[in-house]
Amino acid sequence: MDDFMNEYTFNEIHAGDIVKGKIIKILNDGIIADIGYKSDAFVPKSQLSLNPNIKMSDDFNVGDEIDLYIIKREDENGDVLASKIKADTELAEERLSISFKNGDILNGKIIEVVKGGVVADVLGVKAFIPASQLDIHYVDDLNSYLGEKVEVKIIDYIPNKKLVASRKVVFEEEKNKKKETLLKNMQEGQVVNGVVKSIAKFGAFVDLGGIDGLIPLREISWGRNVNINDLLHVGDRVDVYVNKIDQEKITLSLKKLSPDPWMNIDEKFKLGDIILGTIANVTTFGIFVEISEGVEGLVHKSDLIKNIKEYKIGDEMTVEIISFDSEKKKLSLKEVEKNSESYDLEREKLNVTIKDRLEDVNTYS
Predict the structure, then answer these.
(1) With bands split at pLDDT 50, 70 and 90, how would you rate the model's confidence at 75?
(2) The dihedral of CA 349, 351, 356, 362: what is its sign?
(3) Is residue 311 part of a domain?
(4) How far is 152 from 166, CA to CA, in rounded Å?
(5) Does residue 177 belong to any structural domain of this protein?
(6) Which H or E element spans position 213?
(7) How many beta carbons lie within 10 A of that of residue 320, not counting itself?
(8) Region of poorest pLDDT, from 4-13, 31-40, 174-183, 303-312
(9) pLDDT tens digits for 271-304?
């Protein structure tokens, strides 16, 4: 036997050494690895991974090379007892310190849900990720992240004592890079495509692919008193006009993608036309009536048939054009009594002209 053993040279190992091992057999309770020693190393399942739900066949394969910490050179069966967890922990310490200092992004896998957050296996070491650092948005179900591979940055580290990581920081940095690129390439007057992210009383926010822009209510439509929810819905993909870029604040417009309804207005209407309009606003000095989308005129209170307090926004009103200035976008109207002589004389004109011209304006706008 001595002559036989002398023909072979084995690595000398001692308890506490970290060596390379190649998996040669996968068992239910652990693995067997060749470490270049006269005896193979046995790694119990409990010493293979931090993940309490480890699946041997999924996480390890015959032929895989792994780092192993020698616990005992020979156990009662003559095998070497080793730990992958302890090897990973010792080897990770220096890299974790450097990564924490440099702000490097590290890969990890979420292995456990705990109070206030989750635990991830990062370089073979348990890293706590607070729920507030798991994502940019609020996380409701922590269990849905179990088993997910993640990219994180170390935000707090005390060797062998404390390791806190953040996935949110990585997302925010990626978002900021996208913002910088978008802002660099985006120009006022440009038409871009985005997705409606949220809708508020004052307008709609559109995700432009990494940065949000706002369509103020006044830029939704040329018309007044429009219901934004009738025109836009969360998730809609829309083309928008870039109205203004002020640092990171982007103001958008929908209405500027359609012609100004005041353009060539004198070709659509003329003095004396009687039109059925809609009350857009009621003031102390008169009423503004919209005769087509985005085109309003003022009926002075002296040209109203009833007391101004009797009129409401949204009511219909029959009016006559008495003057207009297309350049200044000013239109003067007066209310026409439906049973008046003026209304009777113009009824045929109202039935034909109003219908045809409003259809033209609506098509045009």
Answers:
(1) low
(2) positive
(3) yes
(4) 5
(5) no
(6) strand 212-216
(7) 20
(8) 4-13
(9) 888 989 999 999 999 999 998 888 889 999 999 9
Q: Are residues 270 and 349 in the same domain?
A: yes
Q: How many CB atoms lie within 10 A of CB 52?
A: 9
Same domain for 154 and 220: no
Q: What is the dihedral of CA 337, 338, 344, 348, to 10 degrees?
A: 120
| 322 shares its domain with 288 | yes
Taking alpha carbons only, the member of 225, 223, 229, 281 closest to residue 255 is 223
Residue 12: predicted pLDDT:
77
Residue that wins the pLDDT comparison between 98 and 3: 98
> Taking the CA atoms of the chain, what radius of gyration do you get in angstroms?
37
Q: How many domains does the chain have?
A: 4
The reported pLDDT for the residue numbered 10 is 56
* Among 233, 257, 281, residue at a domain's last position: 257
Residue 242 has pLDDT above 90, yes or no: yes
The token pair that represents 178 in the structure block: 């996208």
Residue 289, H or E segment: strand 286-292
Torsion sign over Cα 174, 175, 178, 179: negative
Which structure tokens are listed for 137?
């948005």
Q: How far is CA 247 from CA 70, 75, 208, 324, in A?
A: 58, 67, 15, 40
Q: Quick one: average pLDDT of 253-264?
A: 85
220 in the same domain as 299:
no
Please give the residue range of the domain that contains residue 193: 187-257
Element housing 168 (H / E) = helix 168-185
Distances (CA, A) of 339 to 279, 299, 320, 347, 349: 20, 19, 14, 10, 15
Domain boundary among 231, 257, 283: 257
- The most distant pair of C-alpha atoms in the chain lies apart, rounded to whole Å, by 131
Domain with residue 275: its CATH number is 2.40.50.140
The secondary structure of residue 144, as a DSSP letter, is G
**Residue 340 included in any domain:** yes
In a domain, 226, yes or no: yes
CB atoms closer than 10 angstroms to residue 55: 9
